[in-house]
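Lab manual, section 2.4: Encoding a predicted structure.

Procedure: take the sequence of the chain (226 residues), apply the prediction step described in section 2.3, and record the output as structure tokens. A sample record is shown.
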Amino acid sequence: MVDDYQQFMILVFQDYPKETPFFMLGHGFGGHIALQLGLRIERGFKGVILSSVPLRNLESFGEGYSSWLLELGSLFPKLNYGYLYETSMLMRNKESLQQAYTDPRYYTGPIKIRPFCEILHNFDDIQENLNWIDWPILSLRGSSDPSLAPENTRDFFNGIPSKYKTEKIYEGCLHQLFDDPQHSKEILQDLLAWLHLHKASNWDAHKFDDGIGTCQSQPTLVEASN
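Recorded output:
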């Protein structure tokens, strides 16, 4: 999955001048993809936004259980792991909830065990390369999101060496932030303010200097879905 997004981003970069400031937004497990792309892609991003990202790996489930999951996933990759959370537990917007159950493009079925294991296992790669995350990073999450373990999120965020990291926690919000009936405007305003603050930042890229610096271009936001 990350390889596919990487190839897609290479094509996107070709359509824009080198000085264009790019940002990656990852929601849910898409945040793992955003972080891995930030570490992989040579051109680099001006920053990464994490929206409701569950920052935990297989080991957080316990050594015995994680080994059992990996073995089971290799034998029966299409086996249903189950429902992590009911959709109604993840969003407060009633219109969005209704759309989630009626729109065929919105998957509400059980997660397969193989991709679930791979997603969590890939987080190990992110942790091993944590010291390379020196670019601006914004974390957005709701205080009542059942999919997040606050202690894991806090430990991960504190371990990032970047000097340009910001965390926003919205009281009462669930997993779906951007259509929250009470805080959606505030969340979008915070996101836009952060983008404009960092679009002209002149920080050193972790792999190379490709001339991205202060510029007047509008920021380009690419979303990695979960």
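Check your result against the sample. The first helix runs from residue 2 to 14.
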